[in-house]
Amino acid sequence: MRKFLPALFLFLGAFMFSQNIESMKTVFTDKISIRAIEMYDNKIWYSGTDSKFGFVDLKDPENHKQILLSEKKLQFRTLAQDKNFFYAVNIESPAEFFKISKKDLTAEIVFSDTAKTAFYDALHFVNKKHAFAFSDANTDNKLKLAEYKKGKWGMHDNTVILNKGEAAFAASNTNMASTKNYLWIATGGKASRILRLNLKKDDFEIFNTPFVQGESSQGIYSIDFSDDRFGIAVGGDYTKQEANVNNIATTKDAGQTWQVQASGQNAGYTTCVKIKPGSGGREIISAGDRHISYSSDFGKTWKKISDEKGFFVCEWVDGNTVVFAGKDKISVMRLKF
After folding, report:
1. Are 31 and 48 in contact (CB under 8 A)?
2. How far apart are CA 1 and CA 85, in angstroms?
3. How many C-beta neighbours within 10 Å does residue 320 have?
4. Closest CA relative to residue 52, chosen from 325, 337, 298
5. What pLDDT does 19 receive?
6. Which partner from 55, 150, 200, 301 sits 20 to 30 angstroms from 67, CA to CA?
């Protein structure tokens, strides 16, 4: 009987964990690539390819609407919001900053970056009146941030110099995260580091990470923080999606030091990570092009809970519901704990 025990335990473990998924339903399909979503008014809002922007109602998916932000076929991989508006920036030059009214979905361009190197990877509000958009650097390698404050967009003044070949990934609009006191920016490529902005002092500190790095396809793709201290970073190498060494790390000291987690024991390349609200960092969901994974121990160990392909971005709706979006679809997963 002993020779059957390992197989039996594997079967029981997989069966028990599979019970965490109560349902998985695709609520929207279209010819679109979606890498940025926001939740508002019980709707999933998205921006994507071909200038497409719209929403799907969580309660009634038949209630949906899509508009074009531009007659040009722009690619949007960013989306953020304040009380009255959504904001989105296209990834290529010229980078146009769109403001979209929540009231009637009218859109206008409120800022432009005409630099040939403009490529905006993420857009993030730290509070209702203050936001940042992160672009690949100009030829001088200086950190390039657009900043929204006092109702206007402009360029943030800083002295941070990135390493040659250090940039970021416009994979899921989640390589920036914030709490009340800090904004964190994750880089990748030739170097994968954490840039931490003290929001009160308006100055940066830079921290190295043990993340896989050195090639243009490697590094941190997504970060999230539960508070000023605990955070998680995920990523890998999009050209070697099965590679799973040094592609997940956590911090307990606000991003100063990072500890590699589950190296060689996770599902590989990951583009988005989100901490479950109210869990203090214990429960985390992540998505990659080839998997959805879940951790219940602060990111130390992971279980792949779905092999569904084509998801790039995820977001918790509540403690039992997660939205996923990506290639041609938006889906809603209900979890049972």
Report:
1. no
2. 64
3. 14
4. 325
5. 40
6. 150
Tokens 């403690």 belong to which residue?
319
Residue 268 and residue 241 in contact, taking contact as beta carbons nearer than 8 Å: yes
Each as own residue / partner, the long-range contacts of residues 25-30 (CB below 8 Å, 24 or more positions apart, any chain) are 25/331, 25/332, 26/329, 26/330, 26/331, 27/56, 27/58, 27/61, 27/330, 27/331, 27/332, 28/56, 28/61, 28/64, 28/329, 28/330, 29/328, 29/329, 30/66, 30/328, 30/329
Cα radius of gyration (the chain): 20
pLDDT tens-place string over residues 150-200: 999 999 999 999 999 999 999 999 999 999 999 999 999 999 999 999 999
Q: List all residues 6 or more positions away from 202 whose beta carbon is below 8 Å from its beta carbon.
A: none
Q: Label residue 264 left, alpha or beta by phi (over 0 means left) and psi (-120 to 50 means alpha).
A: left
Q: Given pLDDT bands bounded at 50, 70 and 90, which one contains residue 139?
A: very high
> What whole-number distance in Å separates Cα of residue 183 and Cα of residue 148?
14
Q: Residue length, the chain?
A: 337
